[in-house]
Amino acid sequence: MEYRQIGKTDLKVSELSFGTWAIGGSWGSTDDQESLRALDYAMDNGVNFFDTADVYGDGHAEELLAKATKGKHSEIHIATKFCRAGDIYDPATYSLESVTKYAEDSLRRLGRERIDLFQIHCPPIEILRDGQVFDVLNRLKEQGKIRYYGVSVETVEEGMLCLENPDISSLQVIFNMFRQKPLEELFPKAQEKGVGILARVPLASGLLTGKFKVDSQFEEDDHRNFNRDGAAFNVGETFAGLEFSKGVELSDKLAWIEEKRGNRTRAALKWILEHDAISTVIPGFKNVKQVEDNLQALNAAPFSEEELARLEQFYVSEVRSEIRGPY
Question: What pLDDT, on a 0 to 100 scale, did the predictor assign at position 234?
């Protein structure tokens, strides 16, 4: 395992880390004991960073992390997110009183005294333009409730706006072989500003594992069912904004990336890790087997210049126009 610094912070995190949305909820059935075994397996293999949010299972993911990391607070870093438990369009959601409560509730569930990285969870761009929430977060830093803060964004425009704030430590961005737009402007600017990038939805909600067929079905409480067309939240969070059957078709055209890399999952994660702007990539998981498979990406063969050019051309000619929603 290699470790990378998150921007200008003193947080050195495993280049492959894990997100906990799937073990919290909205990804179909889960098994808490298997989730805890998977967290232990990840930590035993060098993972020292996990991303979560207060709304993942209404705090359940944070509680699982508390159990898994008990006694390891100095070794294991946790990022959590806030705002989506309230009305994200109401400025009161971002007041000192509200944000303090979000932080304190997360700290209680996590069993910690301080949050390593506190992130605004995909707020509307108007909130980012207003900027008062950043003053609130600076207050929480002064109070010692949080070490650093960042923003999880839906679009490049939102990310570029955030980079105007000198106190932001990280951006969490949808980035994968199907979502290459951040490479154009956002990543170079983030590097220039010393802001870390957390790559989320790296496997396009499973499309880039190659395991789905056009007739694959998902459980009722799985966002890959109920948010398939953006009915519940931004469509980009599900299948990277691609219509499902089109996504399966496009993924199958990428079967060639598996050569010398074991499988499509490992290849897709390896491609992300080869970008210097990335601080860490945070795939989800529901069991030990998935954690183990994702970690094998670290040993996958690197991509050649020709392969990288082929993937860029594939995105431009076949994928970009198929992505729905702003990004």
Answer: 87
Output the DSSP codes for 93-140.
GGSHHHHHHHHHHHHHHHT-SSEEEEEEES--HHHHHH-HHHHHHHHH
CA–CA gap between residue 303 and residue 262 (Å, rounded): 13
Residue type (1 letter), 195:
V
pLDDT at 206: 93
pLDDT at 287 over 70: yes
Percent residues over pLDDT 70 in the chain: 99
Task: Give, for 152, the enclosing helix (H) or strand (E).
Answer: strand 146-152
pTM as predicted = 0.94
CATH number assigned to the domain with residue range 3-322, chosen from the 4 options 3.30.70.100, 3.20.20.100, 2.60.40.10, 3.90.1150.200: 3.20.20.100
Q: What is the mean pLDDT of the chain?
A: 95
Nearest to 270 by CA among 50, 189, 259: 259
Q: How far apart are CA 132 and CA 212, in angstroms?
A: 43
Residue among 321, 220, 291, 307 nearest 258 (CA): 307
